[in-house]
Prior knowledge:
The structure is a single chain. The chain is mainly α. It has one domain. It has seven helices and two strands, in the order E-H-H-H-H-H-H-H-E. The chain has a two-stranded antiparallel sheet with strand order 1-2. It is elongated and about 65 Å long. The model has no long low-confidence stretch (mean pLDDT 88).
Amino acid sequence: MELTYRELVTALHGMLFGGFFLMALFGAIVLLLDAKRESPAPTPGWQSFYLLAMVTLGWAAVLSGAYIIYPWYRAVAPPGADLALFPKALLTAHSSTAGWHTIGMEWKEHVAWIAPMAATMVAFVLLKHRAAWNGHRQVRTTVLGFAAAAFLAAAIAGGWGAMINKKAPVQGGLTYQILGSAK
């Protein structure tokens, strides 16, 4: 199995950062639903680490997508170039795949940023304002709503990213042999 440098970075962005962020968000939602409101105690140490790791994964996914993957995706193809190396040009060159860019990438470019922002707010409230979380039902409902919005935004962005990468993968760079031997 071979991967180019850009394919490897894209896989790390989507499967490592994005995939683990989605799992961590789901875990945070379960944690929020299970939280005892009578408990005045501060957030336990393991929950603090968990929430900080979740936020870090979310920002790593969005920042690596925006500042590493997206410029490769959006690179302008010179005349006569192989469009397989220019994903946006490949998608927009055919009317049957242009929607993958106009809908999918527009979602990922803008709305995906909501996920780490909302997750950061969730973590901040649980870490710094635990008394408000414990004492006010409206705060708990709002924080849970932000966690759900973050999960939904990340899930849709990840789904679009996987489908777009299947239609027009980001390729290029050095080739790495992962499994097997070069023949």
